[in-house]
Specification:
With about 210 residues, the chain is α/β, with parallel strands linked by helices. The protein has a single domain (about 10-200), classed as P-loop containing nucleotide triphosphate hydrolases (Rossmann fold). It is about 45% helix and about 15% strand. The protein has a 5-stranded parallel beta sheet, with helices on both faces. Helix 2 (about 50-60) packs antiparallel against helix 3, helix 3 (about 70-80) packs antiparallel against helix 5 (about 100-110) and helix 5 crosses helix 8. The longest helix has 20 residues, at about 185-200. The chain is globular, with a radius of gyration of 17 Å. Bound molecules: thymidine-5'-phosphate. Thymidine-5'-phosphate (TMP) binds near residues 75 and 105. One of its GO terms (molecular function) is ATP binding.
Length: about 210
């Protein structure tokens, strides 16, 4: 880790609808990678611990109202406030497993009707992930899993729209995993993609920026 000049940690993002299993998978991946001796951290967006994060959290709990563009920019600001720490961690050899990122930002906001290009604007220049693991699940199936916690976006009709908007963002860094499979099968596939990705970053794949 970190010995070779350009060696660095990998930026790995998990995306998917609410209840697609991202959070459980990211916990499992974290302990697997730790056991393998990698330097790794698990992050998530929104990061509700910052001032901006508190505003987002209150909006999601329906305790405050914000117009669609304002909340979009707050989600983005919440990533910007973490950008330099993110870069520092990666350069020092730590792999980051990030639960949601700019793709959630664009998919959820554009599902409300905002223009996709407008939504991408504030994300430009954030660090580009080396790998995006998309946990693909039919919205109906995710809803059946129960435990939609009652936050603002946790409604079937809206999740259907989000799923369509996610698909437009898919690029070469994406791996689409069938998240209706048993948890162990999903986990096995994720491990393989992640191990490959970490290896490429260790041999010095350059960091790049999103959507420029
Ligand atoms: P969470 O349940 O993963 O904490 O995410 C909270 C909600 O916020 C979830 O419904 C997805 C949504 N979201 C956005 O609308 N824009 C974003 O940029 C992010 C990170 C999440």
């Amino acid at each position: 880790n970190g010995n070779r000049d350009n060696s660095r940690g990998a930026l790995i993002v998990l995306e998917g609808l609410d209840r697609s299993g991202k959070t459980s998978q990211s916990t499992r991946l974290l302990s697997y990678l730790e056991q393998q001796g990698f330097s790794v951290e698990s992050w998530r967006f929104p990061d509700r611990s910052t001032c901006v994060g508190e505003m987002i959290s209150s909006y999601l709990a329906n305790k405050s109202q914000l117009d669609d563009r304002t909340i979009h920019l707050l989600f983005s600001a919440n990533r910007w406030e973490k950008r330099s720490l993110m870069e520092m961690k990666l350069r020092s050899g730590t792999t980051l497993l990030v639960d949601r990122y700019s793709y959630s930002g664009v998919a959820f906001s554009s599902a409300k009707g905002l223009d996709v290009e407008w939504c991408k604007g504030p994300e430009m220049g954030l660090l580009a992930p080396d790998l995006v693991l998309y946990l693909n699940i039919p919205p109906e199936k995710a809803a059946e899993r129960g435990g939609y916690g009652g936050e603002r976006y946790e409604q079937l009709e809206f999740q259907r729209k989000v799923a369509q908007h996610y698909k437009m963002l898919c690029d070469a860094t994406w791996k689409i995993i069938d998240a209706s499979l048993p948890m162990e099968d999903v986990e096995k596939q994720l491990r393989e993609f992640v191990m490959d990705c970490i290896a490429t970053c260790q041999i010095g794949k350059p960091l790049s920026q999103l959507w420029l």
